[in-house]
Amino acid sequence: xxxxxxxxxxxxxxxxxxxxxxxxxxxxxFPDDPQQVPWQRFLDEVSQSGYEWIELGPYGxxxxxxxxxxxxxxxxxxxxxxxxxxxxxxxxxxxxxxTWAHVSDIAALTxxxxxxxxxxxxxxxxxDKTGEVLEDxxxxxxxxxxxxxxxxxxxxxxxxxxxLKIVVHPHADTHIDSEENVTRFLDATDSSLVSLCLDTGxxxxxxxxxxxxxxxxxxxxxxxxxxxxxPLILAEVRADEVPFGPAVAKGVMCEPPSGVxxxxxxxxxxxxxxxxxxxxxxxxxxxxxxxxxxxxAQRTRAFLRSCGA
Length: 309
Known about the structure:
Distance between the termini: 12 Å
Strand content: 15-25%
Oligomer: single chain
CATH superfamily: Divalent-metal-dependent TIM barrel enzymes
């Protein structure tokens, strides 16, 4: 991280970065799952950890009635930064109607909560629970054209109808994962419509360098997810071709600052972009014991404060 001048304080060094957390950091991957903590406990504990911003997580985990959710978040001092949608847009125009039915409900709630971003996660090519291969891990040229064109269409519709910006999330076991695929996607999409949610953990999982991406494609970075991977476990799961879900169960995503990438240089590079950015902590831990997330969240928030965030 760049050194601070004598006049600067650590607290002001990352003044454009807004730190938050998400249900993911409490082991929440699904709208309803007996292995997950109740949504009330998540809201209580994320507030107790010192965060002020949260994401909606899987649609239906938090209350979907805006009045209820506003009341529950406000009394805990929390504000929503984004909603999340899952898409399979490489499959072409024939999936548009089903995609929009999924997106529109989440976009409406995101808008009602005063947030401005919609995180778009591409479809997995293998099942994140069973590891079953669902389709080829590489896209054909036609599928790439579908992916980019339909993503631009989604961005336009979401902006026009709900006033939201989409940020596409490169993700392990999807077709937007490695540096090669991320840069191919960015180069083929309209920068005025499509931005990136850079997840530092997923990008490292797939071999990418987050600082390099920020420095190279800074104008396309619209949102951050802060996450680290355990390099030893990562080497094992990559060598054994372990699917992402079981890899998480093995602990491939770890508590900062014990993993990679180092978050201080990432945050410093993001601050240099001179734009307001959300940086949402997401430590994948599904499934996890109910008492595990809170201490980790508290330590992580303290660590990020030590970085100036």
